[in-house]
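Progress note, project year one: complex with zinc ion.
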Amino acid sequence: MRFSILGSGSAGNAALLVTEGARVLVDAGFSARRLGALLEPLGESLERIDAVFLTHEHGDHAAGLEGLKRFPHIRVFANDATARAVQAGLGHRPDWQIFQTGARFAFRDLQVESFAVPHDAQEPVGFRFTSGRDGDLFAPRRSLAWLTDLGHAPQNVRECIRECEVVVVESNHCPAMLQADTKRPWSTKQRISGRHGHLSNAAAGELLASVASPRWRRIYLTHLSRDCNSPAAVELALAGVRGALSACEFAVVGPGEGTPFYDLR
Ligand SMILES: [Zn+2]
Ligand SMILES: [Zn+2]
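Model obtained:
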């Protein structure tokens, strides 16, 4: 399993997950042209992508769907409520593959699980992707959890990220920077910091510290607000949990940044 974050933050979110049998995007929050440009340095292209898995309908996760009409072979996995919300804004009909939140299903050599997350969208989800087999030297069983856009982390979310080697989690804002921000009205600040908004740096740290799985190898901190957060603020808030999880690598993904391929063997 190989994994790369193409981009992260309110300007757009998308990641590439490659297994022996599948090349998929997790979210498609950039224009198709931009997605193509982000894939190119990785030696990949939209022609080679098999499917997109959508967490929810917000533009920073689904804006690429319109331009993907030029790539009709790409299947789009979403739950019914998310698919309806996205479809309402499209001029074409993608090859929807509807799943039920919480159901487990296979796509080629990927096992996929979705789980509900609290966020102000129709039916937002996180994902856990697993490939490989226990005891297989060449393709051991490996899992990755994708968890962005949630106001708080209920118990089901904590369970879902425990049994994974890689966790991608949102560390959206620094509460002090959000309060001090002059661009956002009070109501927006309330929405962001609310129970159905986004995880703060401290909330991401608390989540990681409370689960602290010995299986974890790499944690990505993502979806950083450009105005109300910084990689330095995330580092500071996460210092304690980093010390406690010393065997685990941490990657703070700044707004607009991507990451090189991580090979999950
Ligand atoms: Zn969202
Ligand atoms: Zn988002």
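The helical segments are 32-39, 59-62, 80-87, 155-162, 175-180, 186-193, 201-211, 231-244.
Residues 25 and 52 are 5 Å apart (CA to CA).
No further modelling is planned for this target in the current period.
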